[in-house]
Every structure is written in C-alpha cells, then in structure tokens.
Write a structure and sequence with these properties.
About 18% of the residues have low confidence. Strand 3 and strand 4 form a beta hairpin. Helix 1 packs across helix 6. The strands form 4 sheets. Strands 1-6-7-5 form a 4-stranded antiparallel β-sheet. Strands 2-3-4-8 form a 4-stranded antiparallel β-sheet, covered by helices on one side. A two-stranded antiparallel sheet has the order 9-10. It is an alpha+beta fold.
C-alpha cells in the first residue's frame, strides 16, 4: 500500500509538471465510496478553469491548492496512486503509464486534463481511498488529526527521546499511530526497527536513550533514501539496499532471511510484522517473553490503508491499554458493569467451601450411592412379589 515516500513522490511529480497550469477538463467517477460528500458533476464543475498553485502532503494524505477553493484532497487508502501520462512518477510500487496502457484506467476516480495537454489521474483499484473537495483540507479530518509529518516535521531528537519515555505502548504500535507521527506505515516501521535493532514489541518507555536516538536517525535517513530511489528515473524497489529486511517481507516463514539471519513474523500493532530475533531482542522486564507468532496471513486490511490502525493490536493505543488494564480488574458485561466472581458455596454435608470440600463431596457421593442401592433393592422386591402373585393365581386356576 502507499506509504509516505510514494505519496511524496506523487506530490513532487505534480509540483514539477503541473504547477501554474489550468484545468481544461475533468472526469470524476460516479463512485460515492471513494468520491466522498460531493456529486461527480459538482466536483467537475469546481475544477474547470482553476489553476494548480501548489501540491501539499501531510502523512499519507495529499491535496492540490488551486487559485481558489475548494481543493481536491486525496487519502490514498490501500491502493491509491497518482499517474501522469508520460511521466515516471515512481516505480517503487507502480510504473509510469505506457502508450499501450488503458488511459485513463477503468480504476480512475479523478481525471484531469491541463491546458498544455498534460493528463493526470488518481486511481484506486480496491476502493479504500477517499477523494474529497474541501475548502481547507488542513482544518478537517483526517488531516487535522495527524501528528507531525515524519519527513518534514519530525520532532528534534531530544524531544523524541523524552516523548518515548512517556509512552506505555509497544514501539511498533506507536510508530503506526498517525496521531503521534504521520506517514510511517507497516513496512517502514519494520525497516526502521530492524535497522535500529529494536524489537517491535518493546515498550517505548523502556527503550534506552541510545536506542531512541538510533531510531530517530533511522526514520529520517530511511525515508529520505526511499524517496530518492523512488524519484530516480527507472529506479524501483529492487534497488533498495540488499541489507534491508524489505526484500524478504513477502516470503514464507522459514524461507525469509536477511544477511543470512532468519526473519520471523509476528503480529505487532495489529499488523503482520517482520523482525530478526537474533538482532532484535526484548530487553528489561520484557526479556524472555516469547512473542506470538503470526501465520503471516496479512491483517493489512484497514480501509484507510494506513496500516496503523487508521489498524491494527495487542497493545494498540494508550486508550486501549487503559481499557485492557481495567478489564484485568474485572471482566465487563455488555452494560459495562464488572462481573462479580462466583460465590463460594458451602457444602451442606461438610460445612466447608466448595473448593476445599473434598470430605463433603465424598459424603454426598456416598449418600447418592446408598439411595441408588435402596432403589434397586426396592425394585427387586417389587419384581419378586409380582412373580409370587402370578404363581398363586396360576395354582388357583388349576
């Protein structure tokens, strides 16, 4: 799914090729699941004759600033992508549109033709994306709810270290939380944790200062490196360094290795997570706790496609942690009341509690046995009397 580098590559491609140009024609798909809150005809009318002034991005969301509002906004979801005809936007996941390709694609949700004939399209094969028309995209969800952008607004390292020390949540889940840092998705989270040698289930507050600093550096360096590769003409993800865990993420458990070291798959942050047990070890009080292995059936199915709980987890968010802590104190009923523990009843025979009433249970069993024996004896006597009565009647007839 698209992550920050791919969305940033699309933004830069639009910035390079489309700024200062008027929109001459537009086609908006009749797909209310993707085209959110506005009819195709109204959307098209609001674009015609407008000039593209700038392309903006925060996290995995992008919007185009026109010479007057409203502005088209794109939440990329699971499979959203920007294509510009004749321009290699990125080969990180997808290639440029070729002359032989269907254009615009049948999966196109918003198509625009500019005054110089340049054409661009936003496509979404899986229909989890959202395309909106907004007066001020930054002031409304989802963009207004995002934390600092991982590329442009990552907090200074000292502030980052201090922030992590207050987070009682698994580090992988925290990295996927878009309200904490926006733009980090599933595979980038795995990569930066591997490069900084941090276990994905390690609690954030328990990380050493050195580990926090290493993670901060990895986030900055890796995202920039991915973007540079994505923007190179002809570059694709196969050209990422061979030392990255990225290349083995899609392999089956037991067949995935990086630099000769085995990759395991677990569930962390609600997502299938790749890590190297030999290098990424739980430390402190978590040392020795075995993580739950994943069957590697992907759980990357959040409709917003952010892999972050925009999905999902065994810790999730700080709110979920609180709820789980409360549930340990007493299981909740559907009405939210704590269920009372079962009452310890006293055995009538022994006068002791059930869980310590072996004598009482034995007496109860003995009594039941005697009762059953008495019933059997009574039944035998009844049968014997019946036979005797029958014999007397036969003799009388003779």
């Amino acid at each position: 799914m698209p992550e920050l580098p791919e969305v940033e590559a699309a933004r830069r491609a639009i910035e390079t090729h489309c700024l200062g140009k008027k929109i001459r024609r537009s086609i908006v798909a009749d797909d209310p699941k993707v085209i959110d809150g506005v009819s195709p005809s109204d959307f098209q009318a609001s674009l015609l004759g407008k000039t593209i002034i700038a392309a903006h991005r925060k996290g995995k969301n992008m919007w185009l600033e026109l010479d007057s509002p409203p502005f088209p906004s794109f939440q990329f979801g699971m499979a959203g992508a920007i294509y510009i005809k004749g321009v290699a936007v990125t080969k990180y996941k997808r290639s440029a549109v070729n002359d032989t390709d269907e254009w615009p694609s049948k999966y196109s949700k918003l198509f625009m033709e500019l005054e110089d004939g340049l054409e661009l399209s936003f496509t979404d094969k899986r229909r989890f994306a959202k395309v909106r028309l907004l007066k001020n995209p930054k002031s409304v969800p989802p963009i207004s709810e995002l934390g600092p952008d991982a590329l442009y607004e990552l907090m200074p390292v000292d502030e980052f270290v201090e922030s992590l020390s207050k987070k009682k949540i698994a580090i992988k889940a925290l990295l996927l939380d878009q309200s904490y840092i926006s733009g980090i998705g599933n595979w980038i989270a795995d990569e930066v944790l591997y490069q900084s040698r941090i276990h994905p289930l390690q609690h954030a507050f328990s990380l050493s200062k050195e580990s926090c600093e290493a993670l901060h550096k990895c986030i900055k360096d890796l995202i920039l490196q991915v973007i540079e590769k994505a923007l190179e003409v002809g570059a694709d993800s196969s050209q990422f360094p061979s030392s990255w865990i990225f290349h083995s993420r899609e392999k089956k458990p037991g067949k995935a290795f990086v630099d000769g070291k085995k990759i395991d798959f677990i569930t962390a942050g609600g997502r299938t997570t790749a890590y190297v047990p030999e290098l990424q070890k739980l430390t402190g009080k978590q040392m020795g706790k075995a993580p739950i292995r994943s069957t590697k059936q992907s759980t990357d199915k959040d409709e917003n496609g952010d892999g972050d709980g925009e999905g999902e987890d065994e810790l999730g968010s700080e709110k979920e942690i609180t709820e789980k802590a409360n549930s340990k104190k007493g299981q909740k009923t559907s009405k939210g009341r704590a269920m009372k523990p079962p009452v310890k009843r006293k055995s009538k025979e022994s006068g002791s509690n059930d869980d310590h009433g072996d004598d009482g249970e034995e007496k109860k069993t003995t009594k039941m046995s005697k009762t059953l024996t008495a019933k059997v004896e009574t039944s035998k006597k009844t049968l014997k009397n019946s036979k005797t009565s029958t014999q007397i009647k036969k003799k009388a007839k003779k």
